[in-house]
Q: What sequence folds into this?
């Protein structure tokens, strides 16, 4: 539970980015946090797990109960950026946001 709370504090420091993922349904898992996302690039479950041996984080992207990709060895200050790049960031991100939310 303590590690899940620690990860949530990291996410809360960059709330606008985390909200852009459609972040929802956070759950405590062993040594980490699981949550659902609905981004432009990825919709599914993300698991962030602290690896005590390396003192780094591993991120799993899961769709329909199948692990699609695992990114290992992520520093704490890179967590949000790495997840954002996998879940949300597309080449024409600003235009996609404008079109999605009728900002034009």
A:
């Amino acid at each position: 539970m303590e590690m899940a709370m620690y990860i949530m504090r990291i996410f809360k420091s960059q709330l606008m980015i985390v909200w852009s993922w459609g972040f929802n349904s956070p759950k405590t898992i062993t040594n980490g946090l699981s949550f659902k996302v609905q981004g432009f690039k990825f919709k599914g479950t993300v698991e962030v797990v602290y690896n005590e041996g390396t003192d780094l984080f591993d991120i799993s992207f899961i769709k329909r109960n199948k692990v699609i990709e695992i990114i290992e060895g992520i520093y704490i200050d890179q967590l949000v950026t790495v997840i954002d790049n996998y879940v949300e960031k597309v080449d024409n991100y600003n235009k996609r946001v404008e079109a999605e939310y009728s900002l034009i």
